[in-house]
Structures are given as structure tokens and as C-alpha cells.
Design goal:
Layout: H1 3-37, H2 42-66, H3 76-106, H4 116-136, H5 142-161, H6 178-212, H7 217-230, H8 232-243, H9 247-261, H10 264-272, H11 279-298
Length: 303
């Protein structure tokens, strides 16, 4: 291993650590602040909760596509490959790992999931969103990409408007301790710095490494490491919620994040990059489509 390669890997891992730490802190503190500041507004809590868990994932592809303006030295193809890897990594982690884990812990789709109605309502829109993103990647048309991005954002807004609060799960008592609120706010601001600095360091290492190892490897590295770094809060939250028996809350975390990841980040890619997808991008996209279709088919009506 050359000195340059070792340095690039260390930079990459440093960025990974910053993103991981920032994502965990950001999600934890944002959730607490949302519960405190939006007490009594279930829809507002749900919407902001989704965004607090998903914002770190959206920043990495956003910075990857903006990187030519930020002084990074790399080709446009490298920017696209790494950005698309970050976009596909998060939903792949959710649909291929966390969603099966949820099903395993709760009995599987054959047990008449209480959320079956929600799955039947939301999955077709997500299939449509992902299909639009993949089809748009087959054409270089700028106006078509802008229109496709608009449709994806509209589908996300529609999914939020269809949210329904669960009257069986009333909110917990509000936090009245000012010192705790101040501490949570300070941690939130610190985490915000980390989730902005982390992707910059991560991308610097990955772009430098891409010069030495061109080809498909940076795409897979971006997809795997970005997913591990940014989806850890969802994984931890899912594990602890299932341990406490809060199945509905765990379900909403997983599918709230999936709904965001399959609409907003692809829209960012459509707007800020050439979005000329290659075979490896399409293969991962079609794998996610297959998982969505299977989940929709196995979602049974309650007896």
C-alpha cells in the first residue's frame, strides 16, 4: 500500500467517523427538541422527526454533486458515481437490512402487520418515485430531469399529507427543565457542525482514492460506508424500540426514512448532476424496486 493510498483511506475513515458521530448526535438531539417544541402537534412531530433522521443522509450526495464548486479535483463521472452511491446506499440499508430485521422481530409479513394498510397506500408511490428516477437516468434531457425531480418532491409532500396520527400513542410529558433544553440545543448545534464537516472530509478522501482506484469501486465504497455512517441512528432506534415493544414507532421510523430516501435525495441528484445512470446504478435500483413490490404483495389486510 502506497503512502498516498494509506493517507486517502485514513481521510476516508476520519470522514466516516465524523458522519457517524454527527448523525447519531443529530438524530438524538433533534428528536428530543422536536418532542419538546412541538408538543401537541402529532403531524408536526412526525414530519420533523422524519427530517431529523434523514437530513444527514441527504447532505452527503448534495455535497458530492456540489463538489466541483467546492474546489475538489475530480471528474464529473466520479462526482456522479459517488453521489449516486450515497443516494442508493441509505435506502439499500433500510430495505435490505433494517426492514427484514423488523419483520424478523415482529413475525414477518405473513402475520397481518398492523401497518399493512399503510404499506399498501405508500409503497405504490415509492415504486413510482424510484421508477421515475431510474427512467430519467436513461436520458440526458435537462428539462426532463427537472420535471422528474418535481414529481419526486411532490410525491414526498403527498406522502406527508397522508400521515395520520396514532391516538393510541399519546405524547409523553413535555420537558420542563431549561438546563436540559439548553444542553440538547448545544449538542444539536455541535452535531450540525459534524454532519456538515464529516461529508467534506469523507469526500476529500474518496475523491483522492478514486484517482488511484478508478472504476466502480468508489461507487460501492460510497454506497456501503455512507449507509453505515448515516443509517446508524435508525438502526439503533429500531433496535431499542423493538426491545421495548414499540412496534408501531419502530415501523414509522423505518418507513418514514425509506419514504424520504426514495424521493428527496434522487430529486437532488436529478437537479444537481447529469444523472446519467450506469448499469451498476440501475441494478441496485431494480433490486430496491423488487423489495418494494414484494413488500407490497405480502402486506395483507387485517382480518
Amino acid at each position: 500500500m502506497t503512502t498516498g493510498t494509506a493517507s486517502d483511506i485514513l481521510t476516508l475513515l476520519a470522514g466516516f467517523s465524523l458522519i457517524l458521530t454527527g448523525s447519531v448526535l443529530f438524530s438524538r438531539t433533534a428528536e428530543h427538541l422536536v418532542e419538546t417544541l412541538f408538543r401537541g402537534h402529532p403531524l408536526g412531530m412526525r414530519v420533523l422527526g422524519i427530517l431529523s433522521l434523514s437530513l444527514p443522509e441527504a447532505l452527503l450526495p448534495l455535497m458530492a454533486f456540489w463538489s466541483p464548486k467546492e474546489g475538489f479535483s475530480h471528474s464529473q463521472n466520479a462526482s456522479l458515481d459517488i453521489g449516486v452511491g450515497a443516494i442508493l446506499g441509505a435506502p439499500s440499508f433500510l430495505l435490505l437490512l433494517l426492514w427484514p430485521f423488523y419483520l424478523f422481530r415482529t413475525g414477518g409479513p405473513g402475520e397481518n402487520l398492523p401497518q399493512s394498510e399503510q404499506l399498501r397506500r405508500e409503497i405504490p408511490a415509492l415504486v413510482l418515485a424510484l421508477a421515475i428516477a431510474l427512467l430519467a437516468g436513461m436520458t440526458p434531457s435537462g428539462p426532463l430531469h427537472i420535471a422528474a425531480a418535481g414529481v419526486l418532491l411532490l410525491l414526498f409532500v403527498i406522502s406527508l399529507s397522508a400521515l395520520r396520527s396514532n391516538p393510541a400513542s399519546p405524547p409523553s410529558p413535555p420537558i420542563s427543565n431549561p438546563s436540559r433544553l439548553f444542553r440538547e440545543t448545544a449538542l444539536f448545534l455541535g452535531a450540525s457542525v459534524l454532519i456538515v464537516a464529516g461529508p467534506r472530509v469523507f469526500l476529500a478522501g474518496l475523491f483522492d482514492w478514486q484517482h488511484i482506484h478508478p472504476g466502480p469501486a468508489p461507487f460501492w465504497v460510497s454506497m456501503v460506508l455512507s449507509a453505515l455512517a448515516t443509517e446508524s441512528p435508525e438502526a439503533l432506534a429500531l433496535f431499542f424500540l423493538l426491545q421495548k415493544g414499540e412496534r408501531n414507532h419502530a415501523f414509522q421510523i423505518v418507513w418514514g426514512a425509506i419514504g424520504f430516501q426514495l424521493t428527496v435525495p434522487p430529486a437532488i441528484g436529478l437537479l444537481l448532476s447529469p444523472w446519467n445512470l450506469t448499469l451498476r446504478h440501475d441494478v441496485m435500483g431494480f433490486v430496491l424496486l423488487a423489495v418494494l413490490v414484494i413488500s407490497r404483495v405480502t402486506a395483507r389486510k387485517k382480518p
